[in-house]
# Entry
Amino acid sequence: MARADPKLCQRLITQYHCGSCHAIPGVAAARGRLGPSLQAFGKRSYIAGHVPNSPDALAQWLVVPASLVPDTAMPSMGVSQEDARHMAAYLGQLE
# Structure
């Protein structure tokens, strides 16, 4: 997957309120503590402890998390497929 445009991704992460639950490096509005910090997300082997971490799986997770982990606490936030691809690229490069 191509490198993410940090400014676009930061805007999308803010737009979809990811920071309400997660702390995300490089995104000032993302200081949540309900969900796990997404620092070094690109080094993680699994998404939500269940799904092998890949750009395609992460994009699907961002669009419809319950499709991958039915009992997840992660809500569907209305993320479009295109926006999810950008967000996945950004999160995947966090080390």
